[in-house]
Amino acid sequence: MMPALFVVGFGVNATNALVVSQVILSLALPIPMIALLLFTQRPDIMGSFANGRVTRVAAVAATAVVLFLNAILLLQTFGVPLPFLEG
Fold first, then answer.
1. Mean pLDDT of the chain
2. Does residue 33 fall inside a structural domain?
3. Is the CB of residue 70 less than 8 Å from the CB of residue 30?
4. H-helix or E-strand containing 35?
5. The model's pTM
6. % of the chain residues with pLDDT over 70
7. pLDDT of residue 73
8. Residue 25 belongs to a domain
9. Phi/psi class of residue 47: alpha, beta or left (left: φ > 0; alpha: ψ in -120 to 50)?
10. Looking at the domain assignment, is residue 47 inside a domain?
11. Strand, coil or helix: 79
12. Is residue 87 part of a domain?
């Protein structure tokens, strides 16, 4: 509640604050995704519930997409031109 009260109390633009908070959360998302991917594929931790090949491939693909999109976000934030996005 405190961050929300700060935003309202100090007159910060609520939309911009929401966007910034979501960007920060998106940059933190790959860390637990990678940890989850590593732990759920290990039979010594998960036993018979360890990920199979199809699930592992899907999880690696999803993690790669999130990492790729975060890289694009960071590059755009720092003003690096991305020719494949210009149109």
1. 88
2. yes
3. yes
4. helix 30-40
5. 0.74
6. 99
7. 86
8. yes
9. left
10. yes
11. coil
12. no
Q: Where are the alpha helices (DSSP H) in 14-78?
A: 14-28, 30-40, 43-46, 53-77
Q: Which domain holds residue 37?
A: 2-82
In tens, the pLDDT along 50-69 reads 999 999 999 999 999 999 99
| Element counts in the chain: helices (H) and strands (E) | 5, 0
Is 48:54 a contact under the CB 8 Å cutoff? no
Question: Token pair for residue 39?
Answer: 């732990």
Tell me which residue of 51, 73, 50 sits closest to 61, measured CA to CA. Answer: 51
Nearest residue to 41 via CA among 23, 24, 54:
54
Give residue 41's pLDDT band: very low, low, confident or very high (50, 70, 90): very high
Query: What's the domain count of the chain?
Result: 1
